[in-house]
Design a protein that fits this description.
alpha+beta; Muramoyl-pentapeptide Carboxypeptidase, domain 2; single chain; 10 helices; 4-stranded antiparallel beta sheet
Length: 244
């Protein structure tokens, strides 16, 4: 298993010195995850499947921008069914779950670690007006543009150390069939991201809804951070660290 030690700043996306560029791809990942990803990409290609990264490392600043714009209503806020919400009618304790269902709290995103990535099949979006939306139907629907890729990944991703932390909705983050995590690293980092670490980061950040976040940090940690699926979503191997 790879040796791994990240500072709080690296763990929370405020320092990206732990990630590197990915050959022939956009984005950044931890070096160990890059090696595993390249092996998986080559294996997929040999079987006629094209695999590419839509998003890898994501900085704290980018996640903070998303959060603050959703909190203010500058970015659309949706309920769990995808219907638009009127942010002006929501109390702070209603805004929190509405945002957290779709977007990670800054400092808590698994994308900060360089171990997690969103993937897609780029050939389905070439020479067409179709744009990647990152919605489950693109992957899980037999007519979806990334269905063949998703099927291949459900069968083979674990061979390269990857699993689906949000394979299905289980009361926290929405289902994300495009989201892969490099298990040898990410399951060692998850217990390092404690409520105390998050409190430290949020308390020192100019973030919208700060008081509400700090008051709910333990619940947020349990419901949206520790609450992940098994190693590929269909086995009994648990990668979380709570009993939620």
């Amino acid at each position: 298993m790879p040796q791994l030690s990240l500072s709080v700043q690296q763990l929370c996306g405020q320092d990206q010195s732990h990630v590197v560029a990915i050959p022939a791809e956009n984005g950044l990942l931890h070096p160990s995850a890059v090696s595993a990803y390249l092996e998986m990409r080559a294996a997929a290609k040999s079987q006629g499947i094209v695999l590419a990264i839509a998003s890898g490392f994501r900085s704290f600043e980018r996640q903070l921008s998303i959060w603050n714009r959703k909190w203010s209503g500058a970015l659309m806020l949706r309920d769990q069914s995808g219907r638009e919400l009127d942010v002006t009618t929501l109390t702070d304790d209603k805004k929190l779950p509405a945002i957290l269902h779709w977007s990670a709290l800054p400092g808590s995103s698994r994308h900060h670690w360089g171990t997690d990535l969103d993937v897609y099949d780029p050939t389905e979006f070439t020479n067409t007006d179709r744009q990647l939306q990152l919605v489950p139907s693109e992957y899980c629907d037999p007519q979806g543009p990334c269905f063949s890729l998703w099927q291949w990944l459900t069968e083979h991703a674990s061979e390269f150390g990857f699993f689906f932390p949000y394979a299905r909705y289980q009361g926290g983050v929405a289902q994300e069939p495009w989201h892969l995590s490099y298990r040898p690293l990410s399951c060692r980092l998850l217990p390092q991201l404690t409520p105390a670490v998050l409190k430290q980061i949020i308390a020192s950040t100019d973030i919208a809804g700060q008081s509400a976040i700090l008051a709910s940090i333990d619940q947020i940690h349990q419901q949206y951070i520790d609450n992940i699926c098994e190693d590929n979503g269909w086995t009994n191997t648990w990668c979380g660290y709570s009993s939620f």
